[in-house]
Amino acid sequence: MADTTMAALFLGVLEGLTEFIPVSSTGHLLLAGHFIGFESTGRSFEVVIQLGAVLAVLSVYAAKLWDVFSRAPQDPAARRTILSVLIAFLPAAVIGVLAHDFIKTVLFESPRLIAVMLIAGGVVLLLIDRLAPEPRVQDAMEVPLTTALKIGFIQCLAMIPGVSRSGATIVGGLSLGLSKRAAAEFSFFLSMPTMAGAFTYDLWKNHAALDGSAWTEIAIGFVAAFLAAVIVVKSLLGYVSRHGYALFGWWRIIVGCLALIALSLGF
Questions:
Q1: Of 4, 24, 74, 103, which is most buried, counting CB atoms within 10 Å of its CB?
Q2: Transmembrane region positions (predicted)?
Q3: Phi, psi of 192 (to 5 degrees)
């Protein structure tokens, strides 16, 4: 029990630290779980604890979200902000439901695939950080609806573990003319319906298989993810505005290479 508790705590912190930076929190969780011998029932732990990270965004952006929703009945700009996030969410909602079983039973069980995707995503992130077009959108609350839909389709690539939901949406945003700060912030906003939807659907599919010990692990990971994610959400925008995303690209490449080496050695 103690070992399981410590593993859940470690993985929860790892989830919170990596969910909103473009390094693939799910990829990190699955690789870490593989190497420490942690396997959750139906792989629900890795999905459900993401709600802790969602609540971190809600807590940090509570005032801004309240302002947008309270103005929506009278303010077309506020309604467009809400609509842009919902439109971006739709592709992942549809494809996620249709491909749920394949993602959980095949892709989640492929550590080598995850490592390769980490490396490939790192290379893409380094390239887009240098070659992104001149930004046309400086504010995440002013993303055009057509751009939001394109980002939504790009987000679907993150259903492959190791790609990164935040990485896909940030790269998509940068390539479509969002500033570095706006791309990260729109990724925050989009994470709320996307991850809440994944949490709800996965819980509905797997609730019967979750026993008391599984719920204890989830609770520990949930709280740890929330606390760690609050720190990241509060600090990330300032960092990427000043330094960009190169650090995260190199981090992905290093972690992916180390994972491939370890897997090749039989770990």
A1: 24
A2: 48-69, 81-99, 111-128, 182-201, 213-233, 245-265
A3: -65, -55
pTM of the predicted model as reported, rounded to 2 decimal places: 0.83
- CB–CB of 167/154 below 8 Å? no
State which amino acid sits at residue 18: T
Domain ranges of the chain: 2-264
- State both tokens at 12: 């929860």
Residue 43 has pLDDT above 80, yes or no: no
Contacts of 53 (CB under 8 A, 6+ apart): 15, 16, 19, 20, 25, 191, 195, 225, 226, 229
Euclidean distance between CA atoms 157 and 167, whole angstroms:
10
CA distance 171 to 154: 9
The one-character DSSP state at 137 is: B
What pLDDT is stored for residue 107 in this prediction?
66
In the structure encoding, which two tokens stand for residue 243, read together?
A: 């330094």
Residue type, 162: G
Residue 26 has pLDDT above 50, yes or no: yes
Q: What is the CB neighbour count within 10 angstroms for residue 267?
A: 10
